[in-house]
Amino acid sequence: MRILSIETSCDETAVSIVEVEGELPTATYTLLGNALFSQVDIHKEYGGVFPAVAKREHAKTLVPMLKKALLEAELLDNSPTDFGDENALREILSREDGLADDLINFLEDYSLPELDLIAVTSGPGLEPALWVGISFAKALASVTKAPVIPVNHMEGHILASLFDVVEDDKLAQITFPALSLLVSGGHTELVLMRDWSKYEKIGQTRDDAVGEAFDKVARLMGLPYPGGPEIGRRASEARAAKLPPFGNKALPRPMINSDDFDFSYAGLKTAVRNLIGDKTLTEEEKNRLARDFEDAAIESLYAKTVKAIDHFDIKTLIIGGGVSANSFLRQTFVEGLLSTHPEIEVYLPHRHLSTDNSVMIALAGHAELAAARTAGAIAFIRADGNRSL
Ligand code: KG4
Ligand code: ZN
Asked: How far is CA 21 from CA 3, 29, 113, 169, 221, in A?
């Protein structure tokens, strides 16, 4: 089957075309076309993602991404589409500035290929941003008559970590029970999987997400958005140069010993703020503080994950979400578990699938195929900013 997938939950606008043969968990996925535009340079100016700006940029970028993905897939057909009533499309896209015009112009020049499924992120994420992708999916469905599946973005991150783009275009054949540690700008959670598509959240952050803490601490240090990669780079420099700690007392690890699988990052961020006070940091001091922060942030993740591994007799660990790109996180988990839990298989996403993308939305759409909506039921798909696994 051929899947067109769309991701617009935050600040990446992405469209993919994926061909799938077979069924979960042994299906083969061929990535025919993949187009992604990161809005990060636009959001840098504001020091963070503003939902209204993200929404506007998604609306502007979706048709170019669709065209690029189709071109790459060699499915861009130079003949106009008979899309019937123009007003029906305008109605579906009425809240997405300029998107109706863009799509209608596109359809007047090109036709869409046959699609078996349209997969679109419906949550969690920024609702105004999610709606652009959802409305676009509805418009494409009205033209192609393809069913639509509203995908959970976090399921996408989990499957992205199991997708081996290099080896054989299949999902890893994992042993259950598996545990997913999801670490992104909006989430820090531990999800127990007793089987494919069976998710049970066992722990989560009580306040800030770990990626959010990286971004906020970077901001306190005057580093550009998104702060995560910048902190990671500086922390690595401090470690390589064996620089001493920044403060004279260790940063806190909130909730590290609590009797549950939850996390907390607000206190760590506040401790960093207090430590900086009104000082202007030198470049070297920034590196030292970045390293101290990263040590504290990753140690809490590691401690709670190992605790859950032991408690649930976990066989497989899956780490997903934007923060899984962090080198120190990767090293801590891979080396740490190898020494104490060598029997556990650890899966990390390929670097270009660790931050938001639409390949993972196609994988999750295929995994949840049974929940696909057809015809009139498509109209009821809604954005759900707090959608949970
Ligand atoms: O999954 P993602 O792309 O978007 C969300 O769904 O939130 O995650 C983005 C988050 C941001 O907070 C970003 O700072 C963080 O992932 N991030 C990193 C690194 N790369 C991205 N954090 C630490 N180290 C990195 N190398
Ligand atoms: Zn994400």
From this structure: 11, 7, 18, 11, 49
Find out whether 128 and 54 touch, Cβ atoms under 8 Å: yes
How remote is the CA of residue 48 from the centroid of ligand 2, in Å? 15
Q: What are 334-353's pLDDT values in tens digits?
A: 999 999 999 999 999 998 89
Nearest CA to ligand 1 atom 8: 322
* Spatial distance between the Cα atoms of 80 and 78, rounded to a whole number of angstroms: 7
- pTM for the full predicted model: 0.96
Q: What pLDDT digit, counting tens, does each position of 108-151 carry?
A: 999 999 999 999 999 999 999 999 999 999 999 999 999 999 99
State in Å: Cα 276 to ligand 1 middle. 23
Ligand closest in space to the Cα of 228: 1
Cα of 249 from ligand 1 centre, angstroms: 27
**Which ligand has the minimum distance to the alpha carbon of residue 40?**
1
